[in-house]
Amino acid sequence: MLKNIKSIIAKNQVSRKTKNWLLILIGLSILLTCSIILSISVGYLDIPFSNIIKVFLTNTPGINNFFHFPVSSTETALILQIRLPRALCAALVGAALSIAGAAYQGLFRNPMADPYTIGASSGAALGATSSVILGLGITIMGISTRPFFAFIGCLATVLGVYTISRVGNKVPVQTLLLSGIAVSILFGAIVNSYHTLFPEKFRQTAFWLMGSFSYTEWLDLWSALPFIIGGSIVIYMFARDLNLLSLGESEATHLGVDLEKMKKILLVATAFVTAAAVSIGGLIAFVGLIIPHLTRLIFSPDHRILMVSSALMGAIFLVLCDTLSRILIAPTELPVGVITAVCGGPFFLYLMRRKKKIDAS
Question: How confident is the model at residue 139 (pLDDT cuts 50, 70, 90)?
């Protein structure tokens, strides 16, 4: 009898948690939709919300058989060809960087790890920029090859930083961060040298390198989408193992986690996701640092929840940052990487100070 009562209570608790999580998921999805609509609405030319809905209804296959509203061709082109792909690219990049950041933080068991601080973003930027400078960034069957070269640069960088930082079976966080910063500076110098050696070609990537969605289009979205979706699925498959790893490497090994296999697969998967994100938006700092950390505090450290909620919160955050970059000093546009750096720099210093206090105690 007592066992039956305990099982009923346990089932009720699980169902309550599931219900709460579904409500959170729905709430974040609604916020993401609202942020995308806001991004489409505001800018040099403000577009009323009603006109946005009319354009969507009139141009959506299947639905346009029942609805047709008179909307100006200028607004239609502005929404469908410029602002919508830009907002979706910002959402995709925000989600990708947040998922990669959550994976890095779980893998290295440190909240200060993210694609930017360990050099992954710089490696991807070098690969993508080199493909443009050398004329290798071509389009095959409607898909750009730039994400592929970004992936090569990102993966080589992550593996290199990980190998340099590794001491025995451990990866000291201080060594990891210093190695990542050193590699970022080195790659930054190489990219800057392109400005002198190839000034004409470098102009194509100068603003993009600072983090920007100014020239994004549907091709960029479709080119990066397979990398981000595929990599994110692989990362999520290891959510349970990352939960066990948080207990410690020896404990995770005793519980059946193949650590070396997991690390190799996750490093490749996060390289896919990071490279695709950088190939679209350039160097956008600290999204993968801020969002997973805040999501862990607000919702749950369980990676099965953390991955999905971080993706949605990262998408919301970057869409809003991109919107702010367009209206802050309009009609001039700020690189979105500047805004995320302003938000993330102080946050990174706070985490460093907090960890220093914890180590001292």
Answer: low
